[in-house]
Amino acid sequence: MKFSKLSNTKFVYSIISLIFACFLFGYVTTDTGANTNGAANKATLSTQKSATVTVPLKVNVSSKYFVEGYPENVKVKINGPAALVQTAENTKNFQAYADLEGLKPGKHTVKLKVSGVSHELSANVQPEKVTVTISKKATATFPIQVRFDSTLIGNGYAAGIASSNYSRAKVIGSRSSINAVTNVVANVSLPEGVQHSVTQNVTLEALDENGKPLNVVIEPTTVKATVPIYAATTTKKVNIHLVASGGGDNTKNYSLSTDTKTVTVTGTKQALSRLQSLNVAVPVSGVTSNTTKTVPIDTIQNGIIAVSPSSINVQITVSGQENQNSTQSQNGNNQQSGQNNQDATSKTANNQSQPAQKQGQTGQ
């Protein structure tokens, strides 16, 4: 009786209505959210985007040829759905290439292509074409020179003999480029005022006679180069050896002498242990008569930082070959004169004997 009265009350109807309202609200919210997410995903896929990506340019060519003139990198402009463009931009999982297969040596202009891009994207290479030169491949081997700026070494210190973990490098390129190579160098960058040995991984360069890098392939590409640096406080007295330099007159002889027989050299212990004498270059270009020159002593040598005295006086004695040539010429003339006199005497004797021969022939 009480339950029946309670069920007919407005309170019960209100509770039931509230439950149904919550259920309907939850259903509508879930369905709306699903539709919204689907629409958002669809909108994301339909949004268009473009991006420009820089990638290396690959060259497809026969292994017997070497190619010059193409850029190391090119730009690829990609257009399409934003999500796919973003993926391609982040991963760079595509290639730009020039197909040179089947082409002969010479200059060629070819169109660049792209591979590995989704079919839903469009891709354009910038530049569209490149002009390349194809040559027969040539190879040569060169010693590696480790170079550095010795002026950066700290006071009282000097460098020993620089070296690298490879002594020679193979250079690959066109025949003209290989013929132009004069040095393969590893340039080590020293910190200013350095007082300790330096080891660096250095990229090799092939240079021509003007120091200009050449477009070639070098194997290995990099080397580990070391510049040993030591305290230069050891001194040693050594003899000097005078050497004529500067291209003097070929018709003259140059005799060099100096009153300074020895000099004191300051350097590293390692360098001085190998040093027995010091060469001093004496320029003789333009010297035509006996003279005395003050000649500076070059201290730019491995492990040497100073020489005392720093300059010496050198006597240059010039002796020409003119007197010798004159004597030889006079002797030649005398020999020629004697030969002429001998020929004349012989000719006279022959002339005198001819009548007697004829007379004898007549008598017979």
From TrEMBL:
Superkingdom in the source lineage: Bacteria
PANTHER family in the record: CDAA REGULATORY PROTEIN CDAR
Region described as Disordered: 321-364
Compositional bias of kind Polar residues: 343-364
UniProt source species: Ligilactobacillus aviarius
Extent of Low complexity compositional bias: 321-342
Protein name: Cell surface protein
Record keywords: Membrane, Transmembrane, Transmembrane helix
Transmembrane residue ranges: 12-29
Signal peptide coordinates: none
Organism ancestry: Bacteria, Bacillati, Bacillota, Bacilli, Lactobacillales
InterPro entries named among the record's database cross-references: c-di-AMP_regulator, YbbR
